[in-house]
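Retro notes (design track)

What went well: tokenization of the new backbones is finally stable.
What didn't: we kept losing track of which sequence belonged to which structure.
Fix going forward: every design gets posted as structure first, then sequence, in one message. First example under the new rule, 237 residues:
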């Protein structure tokens, strides 16, 4: 009887371990940036819903986090409501994002992955220098790494604005960002925290814009698909 009870106990322990190991991992993602993250439908659109929809349709378990909540109503996916949380702030510069970073990290769950959208885009529109923008971008990345030393950060080589506005200083800023962001990201990577880039510029066209700088539905889909391809090798199943 004693041996039988011992065997039963071991079986229950092993079954419990197997059951626990089969629980799906939750991937915590912070969408970070300005109006291209926030969106303002139907005028212009964020990539967030389309990315969430594609991830959930392919059975990836994700939790979008942020202090902002999207109040737009979106179609449900498999009887599940859209996760509306994000850290997109329309019109904000990199300096404003940096100033508020410590407030967000004080109240948010720890992100596994940060999607850093259009870094410095509003700064460039406002005429700030490339050098000052990059100082803020670096400080934001390092602040996120201080919050979570194991965070993965994906920084956009941002999609351009409409060709009619991509002239002068704005064109110079964009070209320099595309040329230098890979080396900046590499320098910011640590042994535990990957800083990656994602090319949103190649293949992006004027007909993906709702206005000079924001995405229409096609633009949002383009950006979401790029993020999906970058994320799937990084997510825990």
């Amino acid at each position: 009887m004693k041996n039988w009870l011992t065997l039963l106990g071991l079986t229950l322990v092993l079954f419990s371990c197997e059951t626990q190991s089969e629980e799906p991992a939750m991937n915590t993602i912070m969408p970070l940036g300005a109006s291209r993250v926030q969106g303002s439908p139907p005028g212009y659109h964020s990539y967030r819903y389309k990315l969430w929809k594609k991830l959930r349709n392919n059975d990836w378990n994700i939790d979008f986090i942020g202090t902002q909540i999207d109040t737009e109503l979106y179609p449900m996916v498999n009887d599940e409501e859209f996760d509306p949380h994000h850290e997109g702030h329309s019109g904000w510069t990199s300096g404003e994002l940096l100033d508020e970073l410590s407030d967000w990290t004080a109240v948010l769950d720890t992100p596994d992955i940060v999607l850093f959208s259009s870094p410095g885009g509003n700064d460039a529109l406002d005429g700030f220098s490339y050098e000052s923008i990059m100082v803020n971008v670096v400080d934001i990345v390092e602040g996120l790494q201080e919050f979570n030393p194991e965070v993965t950060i994906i920084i956009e080589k941002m999609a351009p604005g409409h060709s009619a506005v991509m002239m002068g200083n704005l064109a110079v800023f964009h070209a320099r960002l595309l040329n230098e962001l890979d080396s900046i990201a590499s320098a910011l990577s640590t042994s535990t925290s990957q800083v990656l880039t994602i090319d949103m510029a190649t293949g992006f066209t004027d007909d993906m814009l709702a206005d000079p700088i924001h995405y229409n539905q096609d633009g949002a889909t383009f950006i979401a698909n790029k993020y999906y391809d970058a994320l799937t090798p990084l997510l825990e199943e």
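Added context from the reviewer: Confidence is low (pLDDT under 50) at residues 4-20.
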